[in-house]
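Issue: copy button drops trailing tokens. Both records pasted manually instead:
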Amino acid sequence: MWDKLYKKSNCYWGLTPSEKLVQYLSLIPKGKILDIGAGEGRNALFLAKHGFEVLCLDVSKVAAEKCKKLAKKLNVSVEYEVRDIREFSSKLCKFSGIICNGVLPFMKKSQSKKVIEKIKEWLVPKGLIFIVVFTTEDPLYKTYLEEGLKETENDTFLDPKIGDYFCFFQKGELRKSFSNYNIIHYAEKYFLDKYHGKPHYHGMARIVAKKQNKSDSRLLTAGMTTYSVIPVQTGI
């Protein structure tokens, strides 16, 4: 599926990095970044240009090759592994930042929860996570119900068109998963997807959060926290 999509254009997702990654770049401690579902490298290449060591993960060989070529052209270095995050292990390496934009929906809900726990384990204290998921406000969720698709588990459907599972998060669920983190940004909103097919909307939840030392638990109610439900937003 993904190899076919990445063959369709020179850069399927474009090269503009995620808005919140740019906004909060200065808060990421220097170190190694894990970019889950890195694609052609729009975020990884941006981070590499700013001096970060980056490990990219993606299931697409086509995306990996395109990212490597772009990195060479830009004279930056990124490490790339063609691997499913569900099969990835990082016992020896910790990360100062972890990006996981739009990856968790493409699996069972139970699997996405396990990946979130892995992300927490892999992140260093003071490290930042950037995660985007789809919510039950997504029109696709309603479409599945209207078409009579049965949930295979909570908020999870087997999509016959992609031949794989697709899951959604309830309102506030992603934020609750990081309740012991310092929430820097949290928003649930709609965004306009112009990347594939006709322009269409998705309901999404996005979080930027910092892992705290145990001694810093008192700071969890402080810091920069934003919450918004915005009708229309382009890009993630």
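Record 2 (pasted manually too):
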Amino acid sequence: MFNRKILLFFLFSIVTSCFAQEEYVLFPGIQILLWPDKIKYSNFDEGFESQYSIYSQNDFNYLETSKNKYIFMKSDNWLFLIPENGDIIYGTKKTKDDKGPPELNHVKFYAITSSSYLSENIRGQIYNYKSENLLNYDLSKSWVEGDSGDGSGENLEAKLYKDQVANILIIYNGFISREVGSLYYDNARAKNIIVKLDSGNQYEFTLKDNPNYQEIVLPEKSNSFKIIIKSVYSGNKYNDLAISGLFANLKSIEYKRN
């Protein structure tokens, strides 16, 4: 019975995906189909299908269905749907030329450490914004530095598994909140960063001031990366610097210097 259910699921997926504008997958059985006005999410027996609308607020794009509202983050090869509550939906764009596991576009690091982190008490509940928050696909769990300044000089050290190297980093800047989009601008965001590699070489980049997908392409591959915050975009209310996502893209592309 179980094998028959899986077979029927894949047959249905093949048929429906042929008519979808875009298809995103992560593991077999998890699929997001996106049309200009309709979305379908399947996770074996779970999922939904709905019409949707998209709008922007506080530099966030939102996708709203009849039952839920999602922060909508889509790049050329990856999709995040972050609901106000519930599990985050994500996947990589499926193409005819795909080779290897699709999640190679957004690889989680093996370990991430930081120079500091913020711990705060909100109505009796302790929140620790540690660098370990970046070791998953939940962009609503940020690293926030805990220094007394604005975050300049703070750093993250990220390490892949020992057999992995990359020359592309993916960063989601600032504090991403499921409920309060204005917290992005209320807190500081990284502006100029220095990335130091295993070779000892280091390179400087300027990040955009928005919470969406940003790609850093380095001229050489490395297993570990030290990201030093050189300067920040100041927060409207708080000096605390936040980063909500840090991944590596193992599908290397040719480096082109600007």
